[in-house]
UniProtKB/TrEMBL annotation:
Belongs to the ABC-2 integral membrane protein family. It is found in: Cell membrane; Membrane. The keyword Oxidoreductase does not apply. One of its GO terms (cellular component) is ATP-binding cassette (ABC) transporter complex. GO terms for molecular function: ABC-type transporter activity. Residues 25-252 form the ABC transmembrane type-2 domain. GO terms for biological process: response to antibiotic. It is a multi-pass membrane protein. This is Transport permease protein. Pfam families: ABC2_membrane. The chain crosses the membrane at residues 24-45, 57-83, 104-131, 137-159, 171-189, 227-249. Keywords: Antibiotic resistance, Cell membrane, Membrane, Transmembrane, Transmembrane helix, Transport.
Length: 254
């Protein structure tokens, strides 16, 4: 059964990836907004923003931009799922001798691959803008691990509107709050500069811990408990989102 699942998932993953390679504008569109934010905040607002760090603002900003990149990218997962539901693809696959969950996992893994490509593009742009990191290979692997876990968590959230939305716009619109959540965190400015209630929210929401952990790893600064809090947030969101996404999927195909 396990071999059957992995084989079916691999085949369906290839199908989804071929759709992306035939429509590279998806990845390009996904990276436009994060790169625009990167350029805007570094070259327009960066000189006026005080982070309390001697390093350039792009060093401070990049972790938050990476999370925005993922939040932007997962909207396409919901959109592609919606199209498959609307076009009856799921019903066709049900009539074939394939593992039911393989269809869902193919979309999730496609999201992971596409988002990793987008993240690489954003990092390359940041390097052109002066971003530098002395992090070790282990540090970069830790950053990659956090981003993979974060991407999977948000992708499983995206599965739910992808399966339940009534329109294409509704399927992708859910990601807007996720895109702007980093603005209410330590992604752009230190939380200490914020007024009381906003500061409390910023310091206790998941993005701040994730951003702080990634920033500390890339700048070779102590990450303290931030990395464990970040991993706990990502893992917790992933488990809850996976549960509700698979529950929704079973109800849809039953």
């Amino acid at each position: 059964m396990t071999k059957h699942f992995f084989g079916d998932t691999t085949v369906l993953l290839g199908r989804s990836l071929r759709h992306i390679t035939r429509s590279l504008d998806t990845i390009i569109t996904t990276t436009i907004m994060p790169i625009a934010f990167l350029l805007l905040f570094v070259y327009v607002f960066g000189g006026a923003i005080k982070t309390g760090s001697s390093s350039s603002y792009v060093q401070y900003l990049l972790p938050g931009i990476l999370l925005i990149t993922v939040a932007t990218g997962i909207s396409y997962t919901a959109f592609r799922l919606f199209l498959d539901m609307k076009n009856g693809i799921f019903e066709r696959f049900q009539s074939m001798p394939i593992a039911r969950s393989a269809v869902l996992w193919a979309h999730v893994l496609t999201s992971l691959v596409a988002n990793l490509i987008s993240l690489v593009v954003v990092v390359l742009v940041a390097l052109l803008m002066g971003f530098r990191s002395g992090a070790s290979v282990l540090g970069w692997l830790a950053v990659l691990g956090i981003l993979v876990l974060f991407t999977l968590a948000l992708t499983w959230i995206a599965v739910i509107p992808g399966l339940t939305a009534k329109s294409a716009d509704g399927a992708s619109a859910f990601s807007y709050p996720l895109v702007f959540l980093p603005f209410l965190s330590s992604a752009f400015v230190p939380t200490g500069t914020m007024p009381g209630p906003v500061r409390w929210f910023a310091e206790n929401q998941p993005v701040t811990s994730i951003v702080n952990a990634i920033r500390g790893l890339l700048t070779e600064q102590p990450v303290g408990s931030d990395i464990w809090i970040a991993l706990a947030w990502c893992a917790g969101i992933l488990v809850v989102a996976y549960f509700f996404a698979t529950l929704t999927y079973r109800r849809k195909i039953s």
